[in-house]
Input
Amino acid sequence: MPINTINSSEEFKRIINSGKPVVIDFFAAWCNNCRITYPFFEEFSKDAPGVDFWKLDIDDHPDVSKEIDIKSLPTFIFFRSGAKVGEVLGADPAGLHGLIQTAKKATA
Amino acid sequence: MSVIKEGETIPEGTFKYVPWSDALEDNLVCGIPVELSSNEWKGKKVVIVSVPGAFTPTCHTKHLPPFLEKYEEFKAKGVDVIAVLAANDPFVMSGWARFEGLKDKIIALSDNGAQWSKKIGLDKDLTANGLGIRTNRYASILEDNVVKYIGVETAPGVSVSGADAVLAAL
Output
């Protein structure tokens, strides 16, 4: 699926409570580590049908960023039923791959 | 604006900075600047070291390092917070902090446009040196936001604003 941007905190709440496993990329436009890692996020997402992938710009949504307590970027979080199940920080493609595989297993 | 004196309370200031986290260590994450208010220093013993510029020669080699080296001595004297301050933006301050290995020992604060330092009479026009408006070279000890010591350098080099001078005043 193409990776869409979350546009509001209401949308964010709806997405993480959808019941499906969801992996979200929390990023900022000025963050080079986010830019480096994004192609991996896109690529890995193709191998995980059943998992929803989204991205959220923390500068556009500081309220969500604060609620989730995002401290560094990029932060990738695997949510299920409104709860955070797993997290990967930084330009760590291997770690991100592992997180997405974990989310994929949750679709079974 | 005249220089703040011992016994006076500092005006309120807010500074942006990137808090330390272990994730920053290998440069694989970008830290997010947050705001710190001087109100958080109420009831605490704080040492402020102000330098004209991150990475600039004296600040980088002579002024800041001794504060890190003598960190335990400052802690032993009851200092709660050591902060290095400059007019550079919080991203530059964070980069400098990582370069110097400050981690969570010394916080590197951005005094935007030297606006807070100006309120206490300690901004400095270094436009002729290619730096613009900066913070002066000084060090201060605050207790409950009251100035207990203020050492302002009047000549090149580090003396009254250095780690030894501050430790002696604690």
